[in-house]
Amino acid sequence: MGEAIAIKRRLPRWGAVVLSDLVPGLGQALSGHITSGLLWFAALNVATGFVVWLAASPHFPGLSAAFCAGGFVLTLWLCMLVHAYYSAAGSENRVEEKPWIAALLSCFLPGLGQLYNYDFVLGIIFLALTFGVALMPTTPTRLIFSVIVGTWSVIQALRGRLLKEQIQSSAVRMFISAWVVHLLLFVTGFFGVRMFWIQPFRIPTAGMEPTLRGASKSGVQGRFAGDHIFVNKLAYRLRPPQRGDIVVFRADRVPGLAKTHGATYYVKRIVGLPGENISIHPPYVLINGRRLVEPPIFETIARAENGYSGYLILNVFPSQSYLSSELDSVQLRENEYFLLADNSRSGMDSRFWGPVPRESLVGPVTKIYWPWNRIGVPQ
């Protein structure tokens, strides 16, 4: 089959741009260039996946590499839209292009398509709705309402222009079909990445300070929402957990936590590995009777440097159930790990609820991605 395959219905150039904006390569495919459409679809999705990997990878301490890659993806996306424009047959009647231009403008910002159609009241209403959605308190709510407002604005802009120009067209049905595919791809990709690869978390408490900062309501520096982190859920499918890893784990799979904390997630550092004997002689942790100093972070914590306080035995209520004195020790069984907080003075950890089974570990923390002044790989 040739590269260009004739289709029964001619697709306007701006229509091809809109459809490729929703689903990479769709404008090219519906214009008859199926091979190039598939290539653009594959290229944009691979490039987007690469940006996600860069943003969460511990091998790139900052987000500069991800921003550079994001710029490349944006350039690639713009090139795809230009290619979609020139792939379509076009139309001698420029009036046929106007509904698609209105739709494209509302894709960029709800309300712009209405302003292009001279529907100024509707344009202002959609712009106000967009601004209101941006002020909503929770991310899921913002996402849901932004999809609703955006879809409503684009369809209204497209239909409004078709009616204004008295054009008989299946453009609305074509757009709605593409939008449904766009949403399916987005939802599948978003939840697929979150479920199997990279999951974001927020640090609510001070148990891992100063490595990871928890949320605070007030203080010298004012309110702080807590570090936002990425966790690689795929990592431990490819390698075993290592000493020194900062990990997120599920409380409902830890016998000492399951009854009282449900499916709560915790973040701590791996100190003891399967088969080892663990004890604490403040300020050091002992592994099989020897001081733990490798990786270097353990020596830093034990020496109370850089804001750390060493490893302690606490006399608090509720009292430690494990390692409550220097004479106590814990013998780890196969697939058990001993996790401790970096902030030993206030962190609840395996001293209180014991070893953590391997199946409860979600994955290692790879990067702090928010706030801006905290971006980097936690040590």
Ordered list of secondary-structure elements with their pairings:
Layout: H1 13-22, H2 26-30, H3 34-56, H4 64-87, H5 98-108, H6 112-116, H7 120-134, H8 139-165, H9 171-196, E1 198-202, E2 228-232, H10 235-238, E3 246-250, H11 255-261, E4 265-272, E5 277-281, E6 284-287, E7 290-291, H12 296-302, E8 330-331, E9 336-340, H13 350-353, E10 356-357, E11 361-370
Helix pairs in contact: 1-4, 1-5, 1-9, 3-4, 5-8, 7-8, 8-9
Write up this protein:
With 379 residues, this protein is of the alpha+beta class. It is 44% helix and 14% strand. It folds into two domains: 13-198, no CATH class; 200-374, Umud Fragment, subunit A (Ribbon), CATH 2.10.109. It has helices spanning 13-22, 26-30, 34-56, 64-87, 98-108, 112-116, 120-134, 139-165, 171-196, 235-238, 255-261, 296-302, 350-353; strands spanning 198-202, 228-232, 246-250, 265-272, 277-281, 284-287, 290-291, 330-331, 336-340, 356-357, 361-370. The strands form two sheets. Strands 1-2-11-3-4-9-10 form a seven-stranded antiparallel sheet. A hairpin with a 2-residue loop joins strand 6 and strand 7 (290-291). Helix 8 packs antiparallel against helix 9. The N and C termini lie far apart (55 Å). The relative contact order is 0.10.
